[in-house]
Amino acid sequence: MVAALLSVTFVTARLAPAAPPPRTEPYKNPRSPKNPNHLHLQPLSPSSSSSSSAASASSCALQCPHFQSCSGCTHEWDLDRPQVLEEVSKFFKDRGVANFSFDIGRLWEWRCRAKLAIRGTPEIPLVGLYQEGTHSVVDIPQCRGISKLNIQPFDEDLGTGELRYVQMAVTTYNTSLPAAERYREGKVQVSLVWNSRNEHAQNSDKLKALSDFLWRNGGPNGNIHLIHSVWANFQTSSSNIIFGNKWRHLLGERDFWEHIGGIDVSLDPSSFGQANTQAFCSLLRKLQKYVPRGSSVVDLYSGAGAIGLSVAATRKCRQVLGSVKCIEINKESKASFEKSVSRLPKTVDCSINWHNTDASIEPVHWLEGSDVVIVDPPRKGLHPSLVDALRNVALSYSKASKAPKASSEFSSILNEKEEKRPWILRAREAAVHVDGKTNWENSQSWPATLIYISCGWESFKEDCKNLLSNNAWHLEKAHAFNFFPGTQSIEVLAVFKRGPRVAQKKRNREKRRQPSLLVYLFSLWLEKGDIQLFSMVHLLDLASFFLHQYEETRGKKAYQSKIIPGKNIAVAYLFRHCNFT
Fold it and tell me: According to its UniProt record, which residues of this chain constitute the active site (predicted)?
């Protein structure tokens, strides 16, 4: 039994990719799938590249001995082209998205997180995934051992046994090593799901014996140091829920860190973590580009806050100009969020808040005061109340901007926050506040950008159609990522902008034609200022051009980098005589 666990632990520790970050390619029509099916848990290295068609085919084949019986994968060939990809590409093209891209990623040795069921007997334990459509476990490890500890696997029918599941998560946090070597030296956090109420139950001596055995053989003093830590979760429910509410740290390091999206993220064993860390990092790099610097951001379904905190660190959501609010229903994520905040760079000076509440209850309250909304819902998609709130806010804002009478309708949305709603009060009590207060008070801003991360394609299509109805939003950009090679799953990153597409472009043109308030104030200064070097016309022309650049970049450095040849003297004059604050 223990030998089987160590075998799986060894395999899991070597599943994360050791190659450079995955490449992103424009989508091309996929080859016709030959046989829809794959497995992630014991992948083989791909064949060497060759010009022959046979070599090309084998380079994208699964080559897994468990494929026919295991439920982990759905197709064995064309791992670089999920069968749903053609449909995804057409869906976005029909809705006006140009340059849709698909990030292939790494096809083998990518998994950093796995949950395996434990069934069978102490003499012949089964450690693996369920067979398709059943609760019969397909034994994944190719080596099997007889345990002297006599650990009894869980029996679902009788509710007896001791070990129900094992979760393994790989950390590659050792940033002192090059990226490729970090994955080679990854360590595994092992969580044992034990069939008892707590560590004082009758069979607790076996739990201690098993954890000690794993640590002795896979810990720092073992032949190969594979194990980062050992945890226990206590679950006695007869439902399909894997984890119970009680966790105990048994051995090894308590804190589990990963470097994701430019920041250090703490992940407790109870926290949700992506199985494909490198693909998730690629998605975050793409997402960060669509968040304007200095924005106020609300991150719904935030978990431990990896997305929101990475945006705060990389997009400079300043204290005065912006903030980040993370909304999460799982209260267990609070501890991980607080640890991650403690490791943020000192240059991050914006207001950061985490709230334990359901984002689908009065969602307008959380949308208010934000420029950008990021949603990363579960596979079933957004709650209908949140979809309605996003549509209503966008439509009401559009009406208010066109007709003064409609502003009263829009203000009614704002007034909802004055109610003393108990769920909002509870969320505030459970909140984490960093560097200032939340900025929803006295704020009149509403989301102009919606960034949707989806792991469920069917639910995303329905949500997207609802968001686009009545021209409340329009699709601006879309990208897909191969998070689970060999499956029907595809991860989507979609960027929506408020209002209809044509009207949005028209508003942008009008905005460029309107004189900037800063330019107007600058012209007043010129009436009494020193204008010996340039004529009034030249100065106003230069001021209008460069101050417009300043407003869009919100900073001197980016602004100065756009100086055009022949006007350096004028720019130097402007900076010398103006206080850009």
Answer: 455
